[in-house]
Amino acid sequence: MPPPLTPPGLRRLPAPKDNVAIAVRRLDPGMQITLPGGTITLEHTVLEGHRFAIAPIAPGAALLSWGLPFGHALTGISPGDYVCNASTLEALAVRQRSIQLPKEPNFADYLEPFALKEDSFRPANSTPIETSERKFMGFRRAGGRGVGTRNTIVVLGTSSRTASFARQLTKRLQHLVKLSPGLDDIVAVAHTEGGGQQEPNNASEVLRALAGFMVHPNVAAVLAVDVGHEPISNARLQSFIQANDYPIDAVLHEFLSIGNGVSQALANGEATVKSFVDQVASLSRTPEPLRELRIALQCGGSDAFSGVSGNPLAGAMVHEMVREGGSGVLCETDEVNGGEAHLMRNIRDQPTAEALLSHIAQFKERMSWHGVSPEANPSAGNKYRGLYNIALKSLGAVQKKDPRTRVDHVSAYAEPLPGPGFTFMDSPGNDLEAIAGQVAAGCNLVLFVTGNGSITNFPFVPTLKITTTTRRHHLLEREMDINAGRYLDGKSFDSLTRDAVDLLIRTASGERSKGERAGQYQTSLWRNWQQTNSQDLAAIAGREKPRGAPLPLQFSVVEKAGEAVRTEAVGLVIPTSLCSSQIARMATERMNEQGLAAELGLSRFVTLPHSEGCGFGGDEMERSLHRAYQGYATHPNVAAALLLEHGCEKVPNDAMRRQFEASDIPLDRFGWASVQLDGGIDKTLGKVATWFREHTSSKWSEDSAAAALPAGLNLGLLATAAPSPEVAAGLSQLAHTVLAHGGSVALAEGDPLLRKPAFTDPLVGAVPLVATLANAEAIATPGFHVIR
C-alpha cells in the first residue's frame, strides 16, 4: 500500500480555523490521508475542488470556509468524510461520473443573515496612497473623459432592433483597421434590450449604459444606430445624455436611423465611419499616471479555487492600483449575498455600508418577484467544481476585494464612477451584464477570474483572464492571460502579484490580451425584468399546465397531415448559453465562408445565438431551455445538429444528453462540443467543422422536399404590432388554409393577432384563447395552438 498523502500538496484551507479542506486534486476511495489528528482512509471520491472534513463536525454544527459558515451538518461528520449537500449530489448525478459518492447528503445549506450592528460598527481608514513613478501609455481624452487604454471606433446599436445591423456594418469595415495602424479596432456593441413594444422596466439601466459607452475614454468615435420608433431610440438617448451632462461634445460622434431601408443605411453608416478613421488613427499614446486606471473586477465560471487563488490575486492587483490613486469596481449584487461580513470589515462609513446592504435587499426583492432567490445562483458547472451553494460562491467571490482595500463608494448600475478608490456597483450576477455596467461607469481594463475557463471579452475594453489552477490554464493557454494556479503550486503570492501587475500595465499600454488576439467579444446589458412586484406570482405559478391539445376549430379538416415538411436542410449549431453563442456564430460563419455546406449537400449552416443559460431564472426557465434545445435539434429542417456548451452554464451538454435519453432520442445523432473542455476557441471551431464533415453523410436536394401542399406544415405567426382588420382577415384566411389541410398554426400567448376578431372568429369563434402549449413545447397534435 502506498504511504498516506500529507498536506499541503493534498488540500487547501482558505482560513486557518476552517473544519473542511479543498482537495487540490481528485482523491479516490481507499486513499489514506495524514491529518493533524492522525491517518484516515477515504470512503468516497472527492473530486478536485470539492471539500472534505479535517476535524469532527457534530450534528447541527457549522461547516466553515474562510472562517464563516456555509452549511450545518445533518449527521455527525468524521475527518476525511466527503461533505456534500443534496443539490451537488444531484448535479453530479447528471454528469454520470464513474465515481463513488454518498447516497445521502451530510449537510444542509446555510446562509447566515447579515445585520449591521450600529453600536459596534467602526468606519475604516482610507487606503493609503503611495504614488510611484510608474506610468502607462494611454490616450488622454478631452472633456474630462479620462484616459483610454484603447483607441476604438464603435458602432452602437441603441436597441435589440439594430444589433444585427451594427454587426453587419462592422464586418464591412474591418479592412480599415488593417490599413490604419493608429486605430485599435472598429467594433459593434450589439445587445438585446430596448426594442420591445412597451416601455422597458430597465430603461434607466439601459440608457446609463449606452450613454457611458458613448463617452468612454476607450472610444475615439461612435456611430449610434436606431430604427427610429423603438422605446430606446437615438432621440431618447440624446435627451438622456444632455439632461445628465455626459461630455458627448468631446467625442467624435454621429446618430443614424435605418428607418428608410437597410441598404441605404449601410452605405451611409460606412461613409460616416470612414470619415472618422483618419482623425482617430492620428491620435497617439502619452505617458499617464497609474491613477488613471479604472479596473473592473469580475469572475465567471467560478470554481472552488476562485476564492483561494484567482480572486485574491485580482484583489491584490487592484489594491496596488488603488494605492496609486486609481479605481477598482466590484459588482454582482446577488453574489455578495452571504459575503457581506468580508466587505463590512473595511468600509468607509455607516452610510456607505447601509447603501451596499440596501442594494442587496433591493436585488433580493426583485428576485422574489419571479419566485427565485440568490440561493438559486450557483450553476451546474459551479457545483460540479465545488461551489455547493450561494454561501460558498459568495464567500469566494468577495475575495476580489483585498482585505487591505477600503470600500469607498456604492453606485447604481452603469452610473459614472463617483471618484477614485474602491467602488461597489449594483448589478446582476451575469458576467456580461455586470461587465457592461462596469465599462459604462468608466472602467478601462477588466480583470476576469475564471475557474472553468470562461472566454468572455468586451468589445472595446481589454480583458485579462485569470485562471485559478495550472491544469485549467494549460488546457486553455491560448485564451487565458494569467495563471493564478501557480500560487497553489507553491509560487509566492507577492511574486505572482508583481508579475501580474506588470502585465496589467503593459496591457493598458497597448499589449493585446489573449481575448483581443482571439477576436471574440460579446455585450449584454442588464436585461429587462417582466415582473414589478409579487402580486400576481401565485396566480402565475398556479396556472394550469397546457395540455397540448389544440383549440377546437370552426370548420372541418379536409385532409390529414402527412409527414413534416422540410423546406431546407441546415447544419445547426445550438449554443446552450449566452456565452457560447458568439463561438457558435463564429463557427457557422467560418463554415459557410469555406463552402462546407455545399460540399456536404446542406443548404447552409445556421446558429441560434441567445441571451439565456448563464444566469438563473428558476426551474421553469430551465425546463423551457431544455424543450427549446430539443426542439431545435429535432426540427425537420435540421439535417445535422451539434450542441455547443461554454462549459459552466445552467444547461450544459450533459444535461441535454440526459434530456434526449429520457425522450428516447439517440445521442449519436448529434455532435457535442465544449469551448472550455475542448481547449478554447480555435480547437472548438476545428472540432465543430470536423464533426459535420464526418457525420453529414446523406446529400439533400430540393427535389426531396415535400409537395407544395400545406399538409404537414406548421406555420408560426407573429405580429409585432396590432394589424389592421384587413391584414388580420388575410392572415386568418392563410391560417384557415393550413389548418384545413391538417397542418398547424401557432401564435404566442400575447400576440396582438389574438386580440383581433377578424383573425380569431373565423378560426375558433368564441372559444377561450388559453395556452395549449408550454413555451417551446413540441406540437404533438396538429391544429390551432397558443404558446405560453
Topology:
Layout: E1 11-12, E2 20-23, E3 32-35, E4 38-41, E5 51-53, E6 62-65, E7 68-73, H1 86-95, E8 107-109, E9 135-141, E10 146-148, E11 152-157, H2 163-172, H3 174-179, E12 185-189, H4 203-214, E13 219-226, H5 234-243, E14 252-257, H6 262-281, E15 286-289, E16 294-299, H7 306-323, E17 327-330, H8 340-344, H9 350-368, H10 380-384, H11 390-397, E18 407-411, E19 421-425, H12 431-441, E20 445-450, E21 463-467, H13 470-475, E22 482-483, H14 485-488, H15 493-508, H16 514-518, H17 537-541, E23 570-575, H18 578-593, H19 596-600, E24 604-607, H20 619-633, E25 638-645, H21 653-662, E26 670-674, H22 681-695, E27 714-716, H23 725-740, E28 744-748, H24 757-764, E29 784-787
Parallel strand pairs: 11-12, 11-13, 13-14, 16-17, 16-20, 17-19, 18-19, 20-21, 21-22, 23-24, 23-25, 25-26, 27-28, 28-29
Antiparallel strand pairs: 1-2, 2-5, 3-4, 6-7, 7-8, 9-10, 9-15
Q: Determine the N-to-C terminus distance.
A: 61 Å
Question: Which residues sit in consecutive blocks of at least 5 with pLDDT less than 50?
Answer: 1-9, 699-709
Strand content: 15-25%
Amount of helix: 25-40%
Tell me the structural class: alpha/beta
Main sheet strand line-up = 18-19-17-16-20-21-22
Mean pLDDT comes to 91
The count of strands amounts to 29
Largest sheet: 7 strands, parallel
The radius of gyration is: 28 Å
Number of helices: 24
Q: What overall form do the CA principal axes indicate?
A: globular
